[in-house]
Amino acid sequence: MMSETKGIGVVESVVLDVPDVAVAGAFWEELLGGRVIQEPSDDGAWLVVGTREGWLVAAQPAPDLVPARWPSQEHPQQLHLDLRVPDLAAATSAAVAQGATLLRENATWNTLADPAGHPFDLCLSDEVDRTTVWGVTFDVPDAAVAARFWSGVLGDEIAYEGDGMAMLGGPRTVMFQQVEDYNAPAWPDPARPQQVHLDLGIGDRDPDEAEAAVLALGATRLPGGGDTFRVFADPAGHPFCLCWG
Description:
alpha+beta, 2,3-Dihydroxybiphenyl 1,2-Dioxygenase, domain 1, eight-stranded mixed beta sheet, 16 strands, VOC_core, Glyoxalase_6, VOC family protein, Glyas_Bleomycin-R_OHBP_Dase
C-alpha cells in the first residue's frame, strides 16, 4: 500500500455486490484475462481478481442484491466499469458466452450486464490488443460537482469537463456521466442498496484525519465500518470506503 498520496486516498479496488462470489469471480477473471489473487474464505466473504494493468475487481456477497435495470432510473445502475477491447464484436460474443447479457449495441461500444446484473461497457479501441480496464464511470446528477469532489479525494486533476461528462486524469481513470431523474443509492436501506463501490487506500494517513478531510469536501459518514475501514457516501450518494492496515 502506498504510504503517501497527493489526495486523501487512492483507488485500491472496485467492489461488486453479488449474490454468488464464485460465479462473479469466474466471470470477471475470464473476461479480464486476470487472476484471482484473493480466494474467498469459507463463508465466501471476499474474492479479488487482479488484472495485468493493475486494477483490482473484488466481489462481496450480497444475497439480497437489487440489480440494476439499466437504463431505467427505477433501479438504476450507479457506477460501471468501462473496458477497452480491440475487436468489439468478438469481445461481445465472448462476454455473452461467459454469462453476460447484451443490453445495447452501438457503433463503437456495447453495454452488457454481468451475471449479477451489473452493467459494463465494452469500448472499441485501437490502443489495446486485449481486453483491459479503462476506468469506472459514476452516474451522477451533476458531473461537475462530482468531479470536483473526487478530484479532491484522489488528488487527480480534472482532465475533461463538458456536455454532462467529466473525467479525472489520474492513474486510475474515473469518469462521471450526468443522468436525468437521478435516483441515488441510500445504503444501508435494502430497497435502495449500493451495487458497486470503491475502496480507497489511505496508506499511513491517520484515519481520523482522512475522515475529516473527506467530510470537509462534502462526504457523509455512513453506518458500518471496522478496524481497518470506514464507510462514507459522496455528494451523489455513492458509498465508498476509506481503508488502511
